[in-house]
């Protein structure tokens, strides 16, 4: 500062009149001193107010920079959320954010107001799963206010659940137009004050105070120690609407007390010394004050230059637009390069000429709300068209530069190029669709379940509908749906396998039956794997293959094998009978023939011829029975038709009427007239006649024969039972030979051992079965199982 030099005192009337001059000088000095004291008071007060303003502006700049940086952090966290509302790479991105911003205590993603993602987790465990809308009224009001403002809002200072005091900044996130939740940061109060430069220990005369109106009590709360009344001091305030905060800066010195002039007597005696001292002090203080002002101006200029540099060189497009005309007022280099226009070209263009035609309507709708002060900011993903006609995808944020209640003037637009991100997301969607198509083309049900969530289904391919008839939604509708659909005969076996074998090895293959939606039973071969390892099992992934046809083929093959095996047994038995019986008859005929040729008398010859005739008759009976057996075995296309069982039972009883009367037997027929069985007519007559005649033939000599015939349903078929109270059969001794050829057990003269063999072969030729229960001396029951 340049100081004008003093002019020498000229000799004049005042010098020639010392008393008067002294009096006048005294009066003048008193007046000058009074004037100087008053002026000094005003200057000091003004300078202190300027110092307070400069310090508050510095705090404001630093705090605004901190808040903007915090907003960028929450935007970065929000970008980790895909269109399905699921965060990706949250841990990695959050770690980088915390590393780059040490003043942060934690970063969070809060879907639907519940804190589900927080980093770092250590030290912040108490905050996990906290529901902002339920924990307390203050949290709910702060969260709701952020939603209403549709921009970042800071709650606090509050007592954090993880300990200490801090502020929580929350940015509401929308997917489409639907509220998803919040992207949030947590800053310790000490770190916030430190980052803003609010430090009462570094200033002797100036003290800060930090306050906020409690939304519940509507009372102003102060968060720093010290004076909370400012009426006796010089002070200024700054308000930050992002958190509804108010910062006070107070000069704790009392101006009047520091600059009292003292008594008039002392001041008069020490006038020269005091005036010189005051002048020197005044000039010195003014120099200091103006030096401080120059330094602050230099700092402000440097800050302005710094922010100008950041604006021009920011790695994101920034532009200022006339809100009335829509023309660009200025744009940074990144935005110019992105759009393809120079700065001069861009300042003559309207912003709507750069927006893709399909996005103009939504942009105009949001901007009208901004002009009407319905919202204070909006952001959207939109397309821009550059100078070459290429489409650029961008995330645009529009904020007004006028205060609420003021007429719209201009606004700022921040454009972030996300073209590569959109292309990448489209590639991911296409890849996911391709993978899904591949999975659904597999001839099996691809599935996944979570071990940690009690085997809850997390994925099932659409083949579940083709194979089992259930939709994907039905399959995943309830916990344990899969186990409920396992065939009841297999459920215990499958459960035991899962309990005992699941976590023993990584790869499994198991077969069981499942009941399809239409009620059919499907055989499944389930091949599945424990992921990612047996040491850390989290999921099960597998594929269920329909092997019903294979199982049916195996069953058919098994039945064929059993049939061939049985046929072989019959063939061996048949060959034995043929070789034994026919050889016996041939030997008898040969021997009798020899006797006839050697007979000496006609009487002997006639006797031999009579004996030969009996042997021939027996041979004929044997050949007849063997022919019946051969007919049964060679009748491939035997006709089966529905037959009324009661009718054929009555016919068989009538045929045996003579035997029944002869033995005074009682026949109890309980077969109803509505029973029809699929059988061959001739075979059914033969089977019933044979079984009823055997019941009469082998009746007990000491009691009246009683034959009971009953029929009961069995699934889709019937069980016919023919019971008697006859002599019975020792099944332990003769059970295996009961249905064999040429087997007799009671020594009856008319027994040939062919009846039960033929009966069994006739029944089995129809695909049915015969069973027997018998107790020697008590009676016998034959059961025919019609399928």
TrEMBL record:
InterPro entries given in the database record: CHASE_dom, CHASE_sf, HATPase_C_sf, HATPase_dom, His_kinase_dom, PAC, PAS, PAS-assoc_C
UniProt catalytic activity: ATP + protein L-histidine = ADP + protein N-phospho-L-histidine
Gene Ontology CC terms: membrane
Subcellular compartments: Membrane
EC top class named in words: transferase
Kinase among keywords: yes
BP GO annotations: signal transduction
SUPFAM superfamilies: ATPase domain of HSP90 chaperone/DNA topoisomerase II/histidine kinase, PYP-like sensor domain (PAS domain)
One Gene Ontology molecular-function label: protein histidine kinase activity
EC number: 2.7.13.3
One Pfam assignment: PAS_3
The protein, known as: histidine kinase
Organism (species): Pedobacter chitinilyticus
């Amino acid at each position: 500062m340049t100081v004008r030099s003093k002019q020498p005192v000229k000799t004049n009337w005042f010098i020639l009149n010392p008393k008067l001059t002294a009096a006048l000088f005294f009066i003048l000095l008193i007046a000058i001193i009074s004037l100087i004291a008053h002026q000094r008071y005003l200057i000091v007060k003004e300078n202190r107010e300027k110092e307070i303003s400069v310090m508050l502006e510095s705090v404001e700049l630093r705090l605004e920079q901190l808040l903007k940086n915090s907003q960028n952090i929450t935007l970065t966290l929000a970008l980790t959320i895909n269109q399905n509302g699921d965060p990706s790479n949250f841990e990695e991105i959050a770690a980088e954010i915390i590393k780059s911003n040490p003043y942060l205590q934690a970063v969070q993603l809060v879907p639907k107001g519940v804190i589900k993602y927080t980093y770092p987790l250590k030290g912040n465990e108490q905050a996990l799963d906290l529901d902002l809308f339920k924990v307390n009224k203050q949290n709910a009001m702060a969260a709701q206010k952020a939603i209403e403002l549709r921009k970042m809002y800071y709650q606090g200072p509050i007592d954090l659940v993880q300990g200490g005091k801090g502020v929580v900044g929350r940015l509401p996130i929308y997917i489409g137009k639907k509220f998803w939740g919040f992207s949030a940061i947590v800053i310790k109060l000490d770190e916030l004050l430190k980052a803003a430069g609010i430090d009462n220990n570094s200033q002797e005369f100036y003290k800060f105070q930090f306050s906020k109106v409690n939304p519940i009590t509507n009372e102003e709360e102060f968060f720093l120690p010290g004076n909370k009344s400012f009426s006796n001091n010089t002070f200024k305030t700054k308000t930050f609407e992002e958190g509804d905060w108010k910062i006070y800066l107070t000069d704790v010195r009392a101006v009047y007390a520091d600059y009292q002039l003292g008594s008039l007597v002392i001041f008069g005696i020490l006038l020269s010394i005091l005036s010189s001292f005051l002048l020197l002090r005044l000039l010195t203080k003014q120099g200091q004050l103006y030096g401080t002002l120059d330094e602050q101006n230099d700092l402000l200029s440097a800050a302005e230059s710094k922010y100008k540099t950041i604006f021009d060189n920011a790695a994101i497009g920034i532009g200022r637009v006339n809100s009335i005309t829509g023309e660009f007022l200025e744009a940074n280099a990144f935005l110019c390069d992105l759009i393809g226009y120079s700065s001069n070209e861009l300042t003559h263009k309207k912003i709507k000429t750069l927006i893709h035609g399909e996005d103009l309507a939504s942009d105009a709708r949001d901007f009208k709300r901004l002009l009407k002060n319905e919202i204070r900011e909006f952001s959207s993903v939109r397309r821009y068209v550059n100078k070459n006609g290429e489409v650029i995808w961008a995330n645009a944020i529009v904020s007004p530069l006028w205060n609420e209640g003021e007429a719209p003037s201009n606004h700022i637009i921040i454009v972030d190029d996300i073209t590569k991100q959109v292309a990448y997301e489209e590639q991911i969607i296409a890849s996911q669709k391709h993978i899904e198509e591949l999975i659904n083309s597999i001839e099996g049900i691809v599935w996944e379940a979570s071990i940690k969530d009690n085997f809850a289904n997390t994925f099932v391919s659409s083949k579940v509908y083709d194979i089992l008839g259930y939709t994907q939604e039905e399959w995943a509708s309830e916990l344990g749906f899969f186990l409920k659909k396992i065939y009841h005969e297999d459920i215990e076996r499958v459960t035991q396998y899962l309990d005992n074998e699941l976590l023993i090895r990584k790869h499994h293959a198991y077969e069981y039956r499942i009941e399809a939606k239409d009620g059919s039973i499907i055989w499944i071969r389930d091949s599945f794997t424990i992921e990612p390892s047996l040491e850390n099992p989290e999921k099960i992934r597998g594929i269920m293959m329909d092997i019903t046809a294979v199982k049916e083929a195996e069953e058919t093959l098994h039945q064929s094998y059993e049939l061939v095996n049985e046929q072989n047994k019959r063939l061996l038995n048949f060959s034995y009978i043929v070789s034994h019986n026919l050889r016996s008859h041939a030997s008898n005929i040969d021997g009798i023939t020899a006797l006839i040729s050697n007979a000496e008398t006609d009487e002997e010859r006639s006797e031999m011829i009579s004996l030969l005739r009996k042997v021939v008759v027996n041979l004929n009976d044997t050949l007849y029975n063997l022919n019946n057996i051969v007919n049964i075995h060679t009748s491939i296309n035997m006709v089966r038709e529905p037959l009324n069982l009661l009718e054929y039972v009555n016919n068989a009883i009538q045929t045996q009427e003579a035997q029944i009367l002869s033995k005074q037997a009682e026949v109890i027929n309980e077969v109803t007239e509505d029973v029809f069985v699929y059988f061959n007519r001739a075979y059914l007559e033969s089977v019933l006649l044979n079984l009823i005649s055997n019941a009469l033939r082998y009746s007990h000599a000491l009691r009246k024969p009683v034959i009971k015939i009953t029929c009961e349903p069995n699934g889709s078929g019937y069980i016919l039972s023919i019971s008697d109270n006859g002599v019975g059969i020792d099944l332990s001794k003769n059970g295996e030979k009961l249905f064999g050829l040429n087997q007799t057990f009671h020594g009856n003269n008319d027994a040939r051992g062919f009846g039960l063999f033929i009966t069994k072969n006739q029944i089995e030729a129809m695909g049915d079965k015969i069973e027997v229960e018998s107790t020697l001396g008590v009676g016998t029951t034959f059961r025919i199982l019609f399928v």
